[in-house]
Specification:
The complex is a heterodimer of chains A (about 190) and B (about 130). In chain A, about 35% of the residues lie in helices and about 30% in strands. Chain A has about 190 residues and is of the alpha+beta class. Chain A has a six-stranded antiparallel β-sheet with strand order 1-2-6-5-4-3. Chain A is globular, with a radius of gyration of 19 Å. The relative contact order of chain A is 0.17. Chain B is mainly alpha-helical. In chain B, strand 1 and strand 2 form a beta hairpin. Chain B is rod-shaped, with a radius of gyration of 43 Å. Classes of the chains: A alpha+beta (about 190), B mainly alpha (about 130). The interface between A and B is large, with 43 and 29 residues.
């Protein structure tokens, strides 16, 4: 009888803890208005099941596939919304209001913020940290003709993500120095 | 003339009582059917009573045992069709899963490509910042 009671209490505590833990998944707005105005739209919604399925179709002998497999191993979701326009600033800052509001919630920490007055390319990178481990990443990039939101949910190993850089034709960057150089900059 | 023809036709088509042999043959046949249905007591005996005369003959010329052993041609055909259907469904399911998996794989690469592209923007901004 006492064992059953202990089990019940453990289950209740676990469920309360699970509810209390901040969720790194952002509720992305519909963006139907932006989709109509955009000339090119990328909308990716990959939950844990699809990530697992995708991993099964990767060749572990291929270096790019193997690294990607390692990266998505601990992930529970990847969500991307990207819109390209044929005119400058078709979108409004208010379109991102709902997303930015969610990133003010406890658990989210701004890792990098860049503002370019010359090219108007602004990027914000947020990381959700739990027990000294990144459990989520959010990236908002607003350019004159492009708006991109990336939300990665799950245990992200930034080292592994860095390994992948360059494999898509993108040069390697140093996120640590980026954070230290830009993080404290007044905007 | 026509009256004569009419009278001859009536005469030819008038109802006639069946011959006694026909009645006997019918009774005999009925008795044979009962024997086949019962299938226990050849000779047409049921519950100790005389149900039909001993002259009862089977209706069909094919013996009952041979009729039971008639080859069921549709059984292997049905099994083969079921097997083919099952293989087809399995194949379609596997093909669908493969297409879904390949699409998910493509989307993972696309998502990481977009992410890395934006990280590159950060890198460039940092480089420009450090230059100035």
């Amino acid at each position: 009888m006492s064992r059953v009671f202990v089990c019940l209490v453990a289950i209740m505590l676990w469920s309360v803890a699970a509810q209390a833990a901040p969720d790194a998944r952002l509720v992305l707005p519909d963006f139907a208005g932006l989709e109509k105005k955009a000339t090119d739209t990328v909308s990716i919604t990959l939950d844990a099941g699809l990530l697992s399925l995708a991993s099964g179709f990767m060749n572990s002998n291929d270096p790019k596939d193997a690294t990607t497999q390692q990266i998505i191993k601990g992930l529970r979701g990847i969500y991307v919304r990207s819109f390209t326009f044929d005119h400058d600033f078709v979108y409004q800052a208010s379109d991102l209001e709902a997303v930015r509001k969610q990133l003010e919630a406890p658990g989210w920490n701004r890792l990098v913020q860049t503002r370019s007055k010359k090219t108007h390319e602004d990027v914000d990178i947020y990381v959700m940290v739990e027990n000294q481990q990144a459990t989520g990443l959010a990236l908002i990039s607003s350019e004159p003709r492009e708006l991109t939101i990336v939300n990665i949910v799950g245990a992200i190993d930034l080292e592994k993500l860095r390994k992948l850089e360059g494999q898509f034709g993108v040069p390697k960057i140093d996120l640590d120095s980026a954070a230290s150089a830009v993080g404290d900059k007044p905007h | 003339m026509s009256e004569d023809l009419d009278a001859r036709l009536r005469d030819a088509l008038r109802p006639v009582a069946p011959r006694s042999e026909l009645t006997e043959a019918l009774i005999a046949r009925l008795g044979g059917n009962q024997n086949l249905n019962a299938g226990h007591e050849p000779g047409g005996r049921h519950d100790g009573k005389d149900a039909a005369p001993a002259i009862a003959a089977p209706v069909s010329r094919v013996p009952p045992t041979r009729r039971l052993q008639r080859p069921v041609w549709w059984l292997p055909l049905g099994l083969a069709a079921s097997l083919l259907l099952a293989v087809g469904i399995q194949g379609a399911h596997e093909r669908e899963q493969r297409e879904k998996g390949m699409e998910a794989r493509r989307q993972v690469f696309e998502a990481l490509r977009v992410t890395n592209q934006k990280l590159d923007l950060v890198a460039r901004a940092v480089r420009e910042e450090s230059k100035s």
